[in-house]
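Q: What changes when EPU is included in the input?
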Amino acid sequence: MAKIVIQGGCPLEGTVRVSGAKNAVLPILAASLLAEHGVSQIEEVPHLLDVENMANTVAALGAKIDWKGTTVRVDARSLYSVTPPAELVRRMRASFVVAGPLLARFGEAMIALPGGCNIGPRPVDLHIKGLEALGATSVVENGFVHLRAPRGGLHGARIYLDVPSVGATQNIMMAATLAKGQTIIENAAKEPENVDLANYLNAMGARVRGAGTDIIRIDGVDTLSGATHAVIPDRIEAGTFLVAAALIGRGVYVENALSHHLMSLIAKLEEAGATIEDRVDGIKVWPCPSGRMRPLDVKTHYYPSYPTDMQAQIVAALTVAQGTSMVTETVFENRFMHVAELQRMGANIHIEGRTAVIDGVARLSGARVTATDLRAGAALVIAGLIAEGETEVHGLHHLDRGYDNLVAKFKRLGAAIERFEDIGQSAKSVG
Ligand code: EPU
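A: The predicted holo structure follows.
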């Protein structure tokens, strides 16, 4: 089994460049299915398991995919299937966003229902309700949902989302691009990744207005064409480096990070004592002068509030703060699996309902820990960087889903970190 081994305590210094955003690339690849003409060129695509999965899903429907470095060309002119392979959809919940594009372009989609996942049940009821409001019918059978558009195609509708679901907003927005008339999504998700998706759709010829606010208006058009689009930087990858640098940096420049996507995190890091400087094409961060963060009260919520995807990393940081912190998770149930692993490293945390109460300790100590989901994995790497002694992080398939070259990037900043791929009995370092 692969593992990351970290000798804690090495200060981080220098520059790290953030890759394109995973959670923007995934729906953008799905949106490429809408292009009846031309070829799309997506730039700044990170090399991640989830992106590979989505590219394979789109390819399995008949699209031609061509990778060159961080650019992916997608030719979706002649698709031959409306049923993405169930094993790909079950492996990655985000594949469900191919439903909207398939339904809009072909009037039909047959998608495996994603199962539960490590961060809670995560249903897709709002996606289906939204598509039904556009005129689709849905039948659930043998673990699949079969969606069908009415004879005349989808039509515009006014849709209020009970919660501002990121994925449901994406699915409805994509389906509505080819529907007849106007669609209005109220209480839409405002995440930057959805704005990026809307910009890509508009470059393809769609008419989407208001993305980034809680009311999105989409005027349906007849056809869409491939377009060239550069994906926004990954704010969660950027945030992960900001947190590590605020703990153990000697001045780290997080290049390509966009501060206006990271306001809530930056405010919290400043409150904890770090110094953050917004520069033209990135963010520079220095740690708290006292060497330890001040305690924080953090509550996750939908954008622009503090992101749930940065919850595990801030919990790891606060384990060594000077006092008691509270971190409340309001977006997902069951997203505190990293707490048990951090406790193995000496963290003093207890869970009260949806809140982690963290009593800062002087130091963590290295241990063998296992990532239970993507962001939990990032939290354990941060914990390993600040802990005394050696930490082994297992469960790397989670990290590979969402961090492009994490080990190499931390290594370049001066961390004593290695990745080992197990080959039989001997472990081979891959840097
Ligand atoms: N929800 C419903 N019904 C639905 C859809 C969502 O009840 O039909 C609930 C969920 O159970 C959850 C809340 O609404 O409690 C928010 O879920 P949302 O749909 O917004 O999340 P998502 O689209 O499944 C995306 C990101 C997640 C990120 C969340 C919240 C992608 C591929 N995934 O998920 O990213 O945590 O938004 O910001 O964009 C990650 O990158 O590690 C990750 C988990």
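Observations recorded in class: The pocket of EPU is lined by residues 23, 26, 94, 120, 122-127, 163, 165-168, 189, 308-309, 331-332, 374-375, 402 (CB under 6 Å).
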